[in-house]
Amino acid sequence: MRFPFPAVLLLLLLPLAPAMADPPAREMHILGWVEWIRLMPEDLRIKAKLDTGATTSSLNALNQEIFERDGEEWIAFDILDPEDEDRHIRLEREITRYVRIVRHSGDHQRRPVVEVDLCLGGVQRREEVSLVDRTELNYQLLVGRNHMEGAILVDPGETFLGEARCPSP
Questions:
Q1: Closest by CA position to 42, among listed 151, 162, 141
Q2: May I ask the CATH architecture of the domain 26-58+96-155?
């Protein structure tokens, strides 16, 4: 009589099957290419473009002033009040790094990067944003792939699919 080696091997490997199965799918939020976003903790509602072609997010920042606080480099800047574009709101953040951006013209631009909490599609996440004057552009905030990765899918034919409300942390 032959030993049923394949059958025994199969029985031994059977308990491992769940571990080898595909991991559960992540919950992805489907949003439009333009969405309302809340900048926290200031709770400012800003219209933003979700740009899968950009790596880093960028925020319209006017009147930038770099200063030192407790031995760290900080920046003060103004953003346009979404309710009244003639009014500016002054924000201050610690600079986490600088990024070198290649512009469409081919020249390079060095921008400060700060961390902000963004509420998008019901999810609040901390995100690095580069600061730049975007007043000539249609949107004060451009959300790049780094913020969307693993959480957001963009429907390029839709706008305003999500909510700019997040649960309190």
A1: 141
A2: Beta Barrel (2.40)
